[in-house]
Protein backbone atom coordinates (compact mmCIF):
# COMPACT_ATOMS: atom_id res chain seq x y z
CA UNK A 1 0.00 0.00 0.00
CA UNK A 2 2.80 2.37 0.81
CA UNK A 3 4.24 1.48 -2.53
CA UNK A 4 1.00 2.39 -4.19
CA UNK A 5 0.96 5.79 -2.56
CA UNK A 6 4.54 6.38 -3.43
CA UNK A 7 3.71 5.58 -6.99
CA UNK A 8 0.70 7.83 -6.77
CA UNK A 9 2.77 10.65 -5.47
CA UNK A 10 5.35 10.31 -8.17
CA UNK A 11 2.86 9.95 -10.96
CA UNK A 12 0.70 12.85 -9.81
CA UNK A 13 3.77 15.03 -9.67
CA UNK A 14 4.61 14.21 -13.22
CA UNK A 15 1.34 15.40 -14.68
CA UNK A 16 0.55 18.59 -12.89
CA UNK A 17 1.33 21.05 -15.62
CA UNK A 18 4.78 22.08 -14.49
CA UNK A 19 5.90 22.71 -18.02
CA UNK A 20 2.90 24.69 -19.14
CA UNK A 21 3.38 27.08 -16.25
CA UNK A 22 7.05 27.54 -16.83
CA UNK A 23 6.95 30.70 -18.89
CA UNK A 24 4.26 32.33 -16.86
CA UNK A 25 6.26 31.82 -13.71
CA UNK A 26 9.39 33.19 -15.26
CA UNK A 27 7.62 36.37 -16.19
CA UNK A 28 5.93 36.51 -12.82
CA UNK A 29 9.24 36.44 -11.00
CA UNK A 30 10.12 39.77 -12.54
CA UNK A 31 6.80 41.47 -12.13
CA UNK A 32 6.04 40.15 -8.68
CA UNK A 33 7.47 43.09 -6.86
CA UNK A 34 5.07 45.58 -8.44
CA UNK A 35 2.21 43.19 -8.94
CA UNK A 36 1.89 42.07 -5.35
CA UNK A 37 1.82 45.39 -3.59
CA UNK A 38 -1.65 46.73 -2.98
CA UNK A 39 -2.96 50.23 -3.47
CA UNK A 40 -2.70 50.66 0.26
CA UNK A 41 1.04 50.16 0.33
CA UNK A 42 3.86 48.38 -1.40
CA UNK A 43 4.20 45.77 1.36
CA UNK A 44 0.55 45.11 2.11
CA UNK A 45 -0.68 41.78 0.75
CA UNK A 46 -4.41 41.91 0.19
CA UNK A 47 -5.03 39.70 -2.82
CA UNK A 48 -6.78 36.86 -1.03
CA UNK A 49 -7.66 33.84 -3.14
CA UNK A 50 -10.30 31.41 -2.06
CA UNK A 51 -8.67 28.05 -2.66
CA UNK A 52 -11.22 25.88 -0.87
CA UNK A 53 -14.92 26.56 -0.63
CA UNK A 54 -17.06 23.99 1.07
CA UNK A 55 -20.22 23.48 3.09
CA UNK A 56 -18.22 23.34 6.30
CA UNK A 57 -15.71 26.11 5.76
CA UNK A 58 -13.14 27.65 3.48
CA UNK A 59 -9.47 28.32 2.93
CA UNK A 60 -8.08 31.61 1.70
CA UNK A 61 -4.53 32.30 0.72
CA UNK A 62 -2.53 35.42 0.06
CA UNK A 63 0.62 34.78 -1.91
CA UNK A 64 4.01 35.76 -0.68
CA UNK A 65 7.35 35.72 -2.40
CA UNK A 66 10.29 33.48 -2.95
CA UNK A 67 13.59 33.94 -4.60
CA UNK A 68 13.18 32.80 -8.19
CA UNK A 69 15.67 30.03 -8.73
CA UNK A 70 18.00 29.81 -11.67
CA UNK A 71 15.61 28.68 -14.35
CA UNK A 72 18.37 27.03 -16.33
CA UNK A 73 19.25 24.68 -13.50
CA UNK A 74 16.56 22.17 -14.22
CA UNK A 75 14.93 22.68 -10.83
CA UNK A 76 12.19 24.82 -12.22
CA UNK A 77 9.72 23.82 -9.55
CA UNK A 78 11.89 24.99 -6.68
CA UNK A 79 11.77 28.38 -5.13
CA UNK A 80 13.76 29.21 -2.11
CA UNK A 81 11.84 30.70 0.78
CA UNK A 82 8.49 30.87 -1.02
CA UNK A 83 5.92 31.47 1.68
CA UNK A 84 2.18 32.09 1.43
CA UNK A 85 -0.18 32.99 4.24
CA UNK A 86 -3.36 30.97 4.55
CA UNK A 87 -6.48 31.21 6.64
CA UNK A 88 -8.47 28.05 7.36
CA UNK A 89 -12.00 28.69 8.61
CA UNK A 90 -14.07 25.75 9.78
CA UNK A 91 -17.59 25.59 11.18
CA UNK A 92 -18.26 23.61 14.37
CA UNK A 93 -18.20 19.83 13.94
CA UNK A 94 -16.42 19.73 10.63
CA UNK A 95 -13.55 17.80 9.16
CA UNK A 96 -10.97 18.97 6.64
CA UNK A 97 -10.63 15.67 4.82
CA UNK A 98 -7.33 13.77 4.66
CA UNK A 99 -4.97 15.21 2.09
CA UNK A 100 -1.36 15.99 1.51
CA UNK A 101 0.13 19.13 0.00
CA UNK A 102 3.12 20.03 -2.10
CA UNK A 103 4.01 22.49 0.66
CA UNK A 104 4.67 22.15 4.34
CA UNK A 105 2.32 23.91 6.70
CA UNK A 106 2.80 25.69 9.97
CA UNK A 107 -0.56 25.94 11.66
CA UNK A 108 -1.35 28.51 14.33
CA UNK A 109 -4.69 28.28 16.08
CA UNK A 110 -6.05 31.76 16.32
CA UNK A 111 -9.47 30.81 17.69
CA UNK A 112 -11.17 27.61 18.67
CA UNK A 113 -9.99 24.09 19.27
CA UNK A 114 -8.92 21.43 16.85
CA UNK A 115 -7.64 17.94 16.53
CA UNK A 116 -5.00 17.44 13.88
CA UNK A 117 -3.97 14.00 12.72
CA UNK A 118 -1.03 13.37 10.47
CA UNK A 119 1.30 10.68 9.37
CA UNK A 120 4.64 10.86 11.04
CA UNK A 121 7.10 8.30 9.79
CA UNK A 122 5.15 5.06 10.00
CA UNK A 123 2.50 6.08 12.45
CA UNK A 124 -0.65 8.12 12.60
CA UNK A 125 -0.38 10.73 15.31
CA UNK A 126 -3.07 13.02 16.62
CA UNK A 127 -2.73 16.19 18.63
CA UNK A 128 -5.34 18.38 20.25
CA UNK A 129 -4.76 22.04 19.57
CA UNK A 130 -5.95 25.05 21.50
CA UNK A 131 -5.64 28.76 20.93
CA UNK A 132 -2.02 29.80 20.39
CA UNK A 133 -0.77 26.35 19.47
CA UNK A 134 1.71 25.97 16.63
CA UNK A 135 2.25 22.71 14.77
CA UNK A 136 4.17 21.86 11.63
CA UNK A 137 2.87 19.43 9.00
CA UNK A 138 5.56 18.32 6.55
CA UNK A 139 4.96 18.49 2.82
CA UNK A 140 3.81 15.26 1.21
CA UNK A 141 2.45 13.69 4.41
CA UNK A 142 -1.25 13.13 4.77
CA UNK A 143 -3.08 15.09 7.46
CA UNK A 144 -6.59 16.06 8.50
CA UNK A 145 -8.10 18.66 10.80
CA UNK A 146 -11.21 18.33 12.96
CA UNK A 147 -12.93 21.27 14.60
CA UNK A 148 -13.48 19.96 18.12
CA UNK A 149 -14.59 23.24 19.71
CA UNK A 150 -18.14 22.93 20.97
CA UNK A 151 -20.20 25.32 18.90
CA UNK A 152 -17.12 27.32 18.04
CA UNK A 153 -15.74 28.32 14.67
CA UNK A 154 -12.15 27.36 14.14
CA UNK A 155 -9.68 29.86 12.73
CA UNK A 156 -6.24 28.69 11.79
CA UNK A 157 -3.58 30.90 10.32
CA UNK A 158 -1.04 28.97 8.35
CA UNK A 159 2.32 29.59 6.86
CA UNK A 160 2.51 27.67 3.60
CA UNK A 161 6.11 26.92 2.80
CA UNK A 162 5.95 26.32 -0.93
CA UNK A 163 9.67 26.28 -1.55
CA UNK A 164 9.45 22.64 -2.60
CA UNK A 165 6.16 22.99 -4.42
CA UNK A 166 5.42 21.81 -7.91
CA UNK A 167 5.33 25.39 -9.07
CA UNK A 168 1.88 25.20 -10.60
CA UNK A 169 -0.30 28.25 -11.03
CA UNK A 170 -2.04 27.61 -7.69
CA UNK A 171 -0.54 28.77 -4.39
CA UNK A 172 -0.26 25.09 -3.46
CA UNK A 173 -1.59 21.76 -4.71
CA UNK A 174 -3.70 19.54 -2.48
CA UNK A 175 -3.90 15.80 -3.10
CA UNK A 176 -7.01 14.53 -1.40
CA UNK A 177 -6.89 11.00 -0.08
CA UNK A 178 -10.29 11.04 1.53
CA UNK A 179 -12.79 12.37 -0.94
CA UNK A 180 -15.34 10.95 -3.27
CA UNK A 181 -16.43 12.92 -6.25
CA UNK A 182 -15.63 16.37 -4.91
CA UNK A 183 -12.91 16.80 -3.94
CA UNK A 184 -11.78 14.02 -6.18
CA UNK A 185 -9.57 11.61 -4.34
CA UNK A 186 -6.23 11.07 -6.02
CA UNK A 187 -7.08 7.39 -5.73
CA UNK A 188 -9.74 7.96 -8.38
CA UNK A 189 -6.99 8.51 -10.92
CA UNK A 190 -6.22 4.81 -10.93
CA UNK A 191 -8.41 2.49 -12.91
CA UNK A 192 -10.89 0.48 -10.95
CA UNK A 193 -9.05 -2.79 -11.56
CA UNK A 194 -5.82 -1.41 -10.18
CA UNK A 195 -7.58 -0.17 -7.08
CA UNK A 196 -9.60 -3.31 -6.66
CA UNK A 197 -6.41 -5.33 -6.82
CA UNK A 198 -4.46 -3.04 -4.56
CA UNK A 199 -7.25 -2.85 -2.00
CA UNK A 200 -8.24 -6.48 -2.46
CA UNK A 201 -11.91 -5.60 -2.81
CA UNK A 202 -14.40 -5.89 -5.64
CA UNK A 203 -14.78 -3.20 -8.28
CA UNK A 204 -18.23 -2.40 -6.94
CA UNK A 205 -16.81 -1.68 -3.56
CA UNK A 206 -14.26 0.62 -5.12
CA UNK A 207 -16.99 2.55 -6.90
CA UNK A 208 -18.97 2.90 -3.71
CA UNK A 209 -15.92 4.14 -1.93
CA UNK A 210 -14.89 6.75 -4.46
CA UNK A 211 -18.37 7.84 -5.48
CA UNK A 212 -19.47 8.52 -1.95
CA UNK A 213 -19.18 12.14 -1.10
CA UNK A 214 -19.56 15.33 -3.04
CA UNK A 215 -19.82 18.02 -0.46
CA UNK A 216 -16.40 19.58 -0.70
CA UNK A 217 -13.21 19.19 1.29
CA UNK A 218 -14.58 20.52 4.60
CA UNK A 219 -17.53 18.39 5.69
CA UNK A 220 -19.75 18.05 8.72
CA UNK A 221 -18.87 15.12 10.93
CA UNK A 222 -20.17 13.31 13.92
CA UNK A 223 -18.20 11.63 16.66
CA UNK A 224 -21.02 9.10 17.00
CA UNK A 225 -20.24 5.65 15.72
CA UNK A 226 -21.54 4.81 12.26
CA UNK A 227 -25.18 3.71 12.36
CA UNK A 228 -24.46 0.17 11.32
CA UNK A 229 -21.52 -1.68 12.78
CA UNK A 230 -20.13 -4.03 10.20
CA UNK A 231 -17.85 -6.76 11.31
CA UNK A 232 -15.03 -7.55 8.98
CA UNK A 233 -11.64 -9.01 9.43
CA UNK A 234 -10.19 -5.71 8.51
CA UNK A 235 -11.52 -2.31 9.63
CA UNK A 236 -11.25 -0.91 6.15
CA UNK A 237 -13.92 -3.14 4.73
CA UNK A 238 -16.50 -1.86 7.16
CA UNK A 239 -15.55 1.60 6.11
CA UNK A 240 -16.29 0.83 2.49
CA UNK A 241 -19.69 -0.62 3.21
CA UNK A 242 -20.90 2.41 5.03
CA UNK A 243 -19.52 5.04 2.71
CA UNK A 244 -22.56 5.33 0.49
CA UNK A 245 -24.93 5.85 3.37
CA UNK A 246 -23.27 8.69 5.19
CA UNK A 247 -25.28 11.84 5.45
CA UNK A 248 -22.92 13.13 8.05
CA UNK A 249 -19.44 11.73 7.90
CA UNK A 250 -18.72 9.62 11.00
CA UNK A 251 -15.26 10.33 12.36
CA UNK A 252 -14.71 6.93 13.83
CA UNK A 253 -13.72 5.04 10.68
CA UNK A 254 -11.42 7.83 9.54
CA UNK A 255 -8.42 6.68 11.50
CA UNK A 256 -9.20 3.14 10.47
CA UNK A 257 -9.21 4.15 6.84
CA UNK A 258 -5.86 5.91 7.04
CA UNK A 259 -4.24 3.16 9.01
CA UNK A 260 -5.53 0.65 6.53
CA UNK A 261 -4.69 2.71 3.44
CA UNK A 262 -1.15 3.48 4.45
CA UNK A 263 -0.49 0.18 6.14
CA UNK A 264 0.63 1.97 9.28
CA UNK A 265 0.22 1.56 13.00
CA UNK A 266 -1.68 3.71 15.35
CA UNK A 267 1.23 3.94 17.63
CA UNK A 268 1.15 6.26 20.57
CA UNK A 269 4.66 5.35 21.56
CA UNK A 270 6.22 6.89 18.47
CA UNK A 271 8.08 10.07 19.31
CA UNK A 272 6.23 12.53 17.18
CA UNK A 273 6.83 16.25 17.39
CA UNK A 274 4.57 17.94 19.89
CA UNK A 275 2.78 21.19 19.43
CA UNK A 276 4.04 24.45 20.85
CA UNK A 277 1.92 27.11 22.48
CA UNK A 278 2.91 30.71 21.85
CA UNK A 279 0.82 32.14 24.69
CA UNK A 280 2.08 29.71 27.33
CA UNK A 281 5.73 30.50 26.92
CA UNK A 282 7.51 33.44 28.47
CA UNK A 283 7.87 36.22 25.96
CA UNK A 284 11.41 36.79 24.80
CA UNK A 285 11.01 40.47 25.52
CA UNK A 286 8.61 42.34 27.77
CA UNK A 287 8.42 45.86 29.17
CA UNK A 288 5.64 48.26 30.12
CA UNK A 289 4.85 48.94 26.50
CA UNK A 290 4.30 45.42 25.22
CA UNK A 291 5.91 42.08 24.61
CA UNK A 292 7.23 39.99 21.78
CA UNK A 293 8.03 36.35 21.42
CA UNK A 294 9.79 34.48 18.64
CA UNK A 295 9.90 30.77 18.00
CA UNK A 296 12.85 29.33 16.11
CA UNK A 297 14.23 25.88 15.45
CA UNK A 298 15.93 25.83 18.85
CA UNK A 299 12.55 26.10 20.57
CA UNK A 300 10.54 23.92 18.24
CA UNK A 301 12.54 21.58 16.10
CA UNK A 302 10.05 20.90 13.29
CA UNK A 303 10.54 24.51 12.16
CA UNK A 304 13.94 23.46 10.88
CA UNK A 305 12.22 21.24 8.35
CA UNK A 306 10.39 24.19 6.81
CA UNK A 307 13.05 26.76 7.63
CA UNK A 308 10.41 29.11 8.92
CA UNK A 309 10.27 31.02 12.17
CA UNK A 310 7.17 32.21 14.02
CA UNK A 311 6.63 35.33 16.11
CA UNK A 312 3.93 37.11 18.07
CA UNK A 313 3.93 40.73 19.22
CA UNK A 314 1.55 42.66 21.46
CA UNK A 315 2.04 46.43 21.74
CA UNK A 316 0.10 48.59 24.18
CA UNK A 317 -1.85 51.54 22.78
CA UNK A 318 0.43 54.01 21.10
CA UNK A 319 3.62 51.99 21.59
CA UNK A 320 6.14 51.28 18.88
CA UNK A 321 8.38 48.44 17.94
CA UNK A 322 11.61 50.41 17.50
CA UNK A 323 12.85 50.73 13.93
CA UNK A 324 14.77 47.58 13.11
CA UNK A 325 16.10 45.36 10.35
CA UNK A 326 15.97 41.60 9.85
CA UNK A 327 19.42 40.63 8.62
CA UNK A 328 18.45 37.03 7.94
CA UNK A 329 14.87 36.79 6.85
CA UNK A 330 11.87 38.29 5.16
CA UNK A 331 9.06 38.75 7.63
CA UNK A 332 5.34 38.22 7.07
CA UNK A 333 2.78 39.51 9.53
CA UNK A 334 -0.94 39.34 10.02
CA UNK A 335 -2.74 41.67 12.39
CA UNK A 336 -4.64 39.69 15.04
CA UNK A 337 -6.14 42.58 16.92
CA UNK A 338 -6.19 46.34 17.15
CA UNK A 339 -4.76 48.63 14.55
CA UNK A 340 -1.56 50.44 13.85
CA UNK A 341 0.90 51.57 11.24
CA UNK A 342 3.69 49.80 9.44
CA UNK A 343 6.49 51.97 8.19
CA UNK A 344 9.11 50.61 5.84
CA UNK A 345 12.15 52.38 4.42
CA UNK A 346 13.94 51.86 1.11
CA UNK A 347 17.71 51.33 1.10
CA UNK A 348 18.08 54.85 -0.26
CA UNK A 349 16.53 56.37 2.86
CA UNK A 350 13.13 57.25 1.41
CA UNK A 351 9.82 56.04 2.76
CA UNK A 352 8.74 52.86 1.03
CA UNK A 353 5.48 52.51 2.90
CA UNK A 354 3.57 54.08 5.75
CA UNK A 355 0.35 52.12 5.86
CA UNK A 356 -2.47 51.87 8.36
CA UNK A 357 -3.31 48.27 9.15
CA UNK A 358 -5.99 46.65 11.22
CA UNK A 359 -7.20 43.19 12.12
CA UNK A 360 -6.69 40.71 9.32
CA UNK A 361 -4.31 42.76 7.23
CA UNK A 362 -1.22 40.99 5.96
CA UNK A 363 2.07 42.74 5.40
CA UNK A 364 5.57 41.65 4.61
CA UNK A 365 8.93 43.22 5.14
CA UNK A 366 11.71 42.28 2.75
CA UNK A 367 14.97 41.17 4.30
CA UNK A 368 17.34 44.09 5.08
CA UNK A 369 14.60 46.74 4.88
CA UNK A 370 14.34 48.95 7.98
CA UNK A 371 10.83 49.05 9.43
CA UNK A 372 8.75 49.67 12.52
CA UNK A 373 5.24 48.94 13.74
CA UNK A 374 3.29 51.53 15.72
CA UNK A 375 0.11 50.76 17.66
CA UNK A 376 -2.74 53.21 17.29
CA UNK A 377 -3.79 55.11 20.41
CA UNK A 378 -7.11 53.26 20.49
CA UNK A 379 -5.87 50.04 22.09
CA UNK A 380 -3.36 47.21 21.98
CA UNK A 381 -2.00 46.13 18.61
CA UNK A 382 -1.38 42.43 18.27
CA UNK A 383 0.23 40.77 15.29
CA UNK A 384 1.53 37.35 14.46
CA UNK A 385 3.67 36.11 11.63
CA UNK A 386 6.37 34.10 10.03
CA UNK A 387 9.97 34.71 9.11
CA UNK A 388 11.62 32.92 6.22
CA UNK A 389 14.34 31.45 8.35
CA UNK A 390 14.16 29.07 11.28
CA UNK A 391 17.47 30.26 12.59
CA UNK A 392 17.67 32.84 15.35
CA UNK A 393 16.81 36.07 13.67
CA UNK A 394 18.89 38.66 15.60
CA UNK A 395 16.85 41.69 14.61
CA UNK A 396 19.05 44.77 14.51
CA UNK A 397 17.48 47.73 16.25
CA UNK A 398 18.40 51.06 14.76
CA UNK A 399 17.04 53.21 17.58
CA UNK A 400 16.51 52.79 21.32
CA UNK A 401 18.80 51.69 24.14
CA UNK A 402 19.72 48.32 22.59
CA UNK A 403 20.24 49.81 19.15
CA UNK A 404 23.21 49.66 16.88
CA UNK A 405 23.26 53.45 17.07
CA UNK A 406 23.79 53.24 20.80
CA UNK A 407 26.35 50.47 20.45
CA UNK A 408 28.31 52.30 17.82
CA UNK A 409 28.16 55.80 19.21
CA UNK A 410 31.59 57.37 19.00
CA UNK A 411 33.67 59.69 16.88
CA UNK A 412 33.29 57.51 13.77
CA UNK A 413 29.51 57.52 13.83
CA UNK A 414 29.40 61.20 14.74
CA UNK A 415 31.60 61.93 11.75
CA UNK A 416 29.26 59.84 9.63
CA UNK A 417 26.34 62.02 10.61
CA UNK A 418 28.44 65.15 10.45
CA UNK A 419 27.73 66.19 14.04
CA UNK A 420 29.85 66.31 17.16
CA UNK A 421 30.13 63.25 19.32
CA UNK A 422 28.51 65.00 22.28
CA UNK A 423 25.52 65.94 20.26
CA UNK A 424 25.20 62.43 18.93
CA UNK A 425 25.36 61.03 22.47
CA UNK A 426 22.61 63.40 23.60
CA UNK A 427 20.42 62.28 20.78
CA UNK A 428 21.06 58.62 21.27
CA UNK A 429 20.56 58.79 25.04
CA UNK A 430 17.26 60.64 24.87
CA UNK A 431 15.36 57.38 24.45
CA UNK A 432 15.73 55.37 27.65
CA UNK A 433 13.71 52.37 26.53
CA UNK A 434 14.60 49.59 24.15
CA UNK A 435 12.88 47.35 21.59
CA UNK A 436 9.33 48.45 22.42
CA UNK A 437 9.12 52.18 22.90
CA UNK A 438 6.46 54.26 24.63
CA UNK A 439 3.90 56.28 22.82
CA UNK A 440 4.98 59.58 21.31
CA UNK A 441 4.15 62.35 21.59
CA UNK A 442 2.87 62.01 25.10
CA UNK A 443 2.03 65.34 26.69
CA UNK A 444 4.24 64.80 29.71
CA UNK A 445 7.16 63.47 27.77
CA UNK A 446 6.74 66.32 25.37
CA UNK A 447 7.06 68.86 28.18
CA UNK A 448 10.10 67.10 29.58
CA UNK A 449 11.63 67.02 26.18
CA UNK A 450 11.14 70.75 25.72
CA UNK A 451 12.71 71.50 29.09
CA UNK A 452 15.63 69.26 28.34
CA UNK A 453 15.98 70.89 24.97
CA UNK A 454 16.08 74.29 26.59
CA UNK A 455 18.94 73.15 28.82
CA UNK A 456 20.81 71.80 25.87
CA UNK A 457 20.44 74.99 23.92
CA UNK A 458 22.31 76.79 26.63
CA UNK A 459 25.24 74.50 26.01
CA UNK A 460 26.27 76.56 23.07
CA UNK A 461 26.50 77.09 19.41
CA UNK A 462 27.06 73.58 18.37
CA UNK A 463 23.59 72.54 19.38
CA UNK A 464 21.91 75.59 17.88
CA UNK A 465 23.62 75.37 14.56
CA UNK A 466 22.55 71.81 13.89
CA UNK A 467 20.42 71.93 10.78
CA UNK A 468 19.92 69.25 8.20
CA UNK A 469 19.82 66.39 10.69
CA UNK A 470 20.05 62.93 9.13
CA UNK A 471 16.70 61.27 8.42
CA UNK A 472 17.73 58.43 10.68
CA UNK A 473 17.65 60.67 13.71
CA UNK A 474 14.48 62.55 12.98
CA UNK A 475 11.89 59.81 13.05
C1 LIG B 1 -8.07 -10.84 -0.25
O1 LIG B 1 -9.35 -11.09 0.30
C2 LIG B 1 -9.66 -12.47 0.39
C3 LIG B 1 -11.05 -12.59 0.97
O2 LIG B 1 -11.88 -11.54 0.60
C4 LIG B 1 -8.66 -13.19 1.25
O3 LIG B 1 -8.94 -14.58 1.27
C5 LIG B 1 -7.27 -12.97 0.73
O4 LIG B 1 -6.34 -13.54 1.61
C6 LIG B 1 -7.02 -11.50 0.60
N1 LIG B 1 -5.69 -11.32 0.01
C7 LIG B 1 -4.76 -10.57 0.59
C8 LIG B 1 -3.46 -10.48 -0.15
O5 LIG B 1 -4.94 -10.02 1.65
C1 LIG C 1 -2.31 42.18 24.50
O1 LIG C 1 -2.16 43.10 25.54
C2 LIG C 1 -3.37 43.61 26.08
C3 LIG C 1 -3.02 44.59 27.14
O2 LIG C 1 -2.02 45.45 26.76
C4 LIG C 1 -4.22 42.50 26.64
O3 LIG C 1 -5.47 43.01 27.06
C5 LIG C 1 -4.42 41.45 25.57
O4 LIG C 1 -5.11 40.36 26.11
C6 LIG C 1 -3.10 40.99 25.04
N1 LIG C 1 -3.31 40.02 24.02
C7 LIG C 1 -2.84 38.80 24.13
C8 LIG C 1 -3.19 37.88 23.05
O5 LIG C 1 -2.16 38.44 25.07
C1 LIG D 1 14.57 55.18 -3.68
O1 LIG D 1 14.38 53.83 -4.11
C2 LIG D 1 13.08 53.52 -4.54
C3 LIG D 1 13.02 52.04 -4.87
O2 LIG D 1 14.11 51.61 -5.55
C4 LIG D 1 12.70 54.39 -5.72
O3 LIG D 1 11.39 54.09 -6.13
C5 LIG D 1 12.79 55.84 -5.31
O4 LIG D 1 12.54 56.68 -6.42
C6 LIG D 1 14.17 56.15 -4.77
N1 LIG D 1 14.19 57.52 -4.29
C7 LIG D 1 15.22 58.34 -4.46
C8 LIG D 1 15.06 59.71 -3.93
O5 LIG D 1 16.22 57.98 -5.04
TrEMBL record:
Keywords: Signal. Residues 1-20 form the signal peptide. It comes from the Eukaryota. Residues 43-207, 276-425 form the Cupin type-1 domain. InterPro entries: Cupin_1, RmlC-like_jellyroll, RmlC_Cupin_sf, Seed_Storage-Functional. The keyword Signal applies. CDD domains: cupin_7S_vicilin-like_C (cd02245), cupin_7S_vicilin-like_N (cd02244). Residues 442-465 have a biased composition (Basic and acidic residues). Coiled coil: none annotated. SMART domains: Cupin_1 (SM00835). Residues 438-475 are annotated as: Disordered. This is Cupin type-1 domain-containing protein. The lineage of its organism: Eukaryota, Viridiplantae, Streptophyta, Embryophyta, Tracheophyta.
Amino acid sequence: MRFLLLFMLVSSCAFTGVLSDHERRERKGEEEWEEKGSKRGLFILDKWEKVVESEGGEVRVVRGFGLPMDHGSGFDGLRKGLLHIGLILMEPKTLFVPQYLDASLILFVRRGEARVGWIHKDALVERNLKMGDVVQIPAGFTFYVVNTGAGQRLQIICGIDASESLGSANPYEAFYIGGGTSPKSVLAGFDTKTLATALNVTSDEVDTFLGARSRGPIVYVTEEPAGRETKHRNGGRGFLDDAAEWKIFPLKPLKGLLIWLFGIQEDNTVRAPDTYNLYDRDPGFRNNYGWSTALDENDYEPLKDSDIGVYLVNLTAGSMMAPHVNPRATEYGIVLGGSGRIQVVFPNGTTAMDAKVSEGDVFYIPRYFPFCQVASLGGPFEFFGFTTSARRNYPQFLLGQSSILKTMVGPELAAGFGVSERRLRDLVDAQGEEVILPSWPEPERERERREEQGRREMRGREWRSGKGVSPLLVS
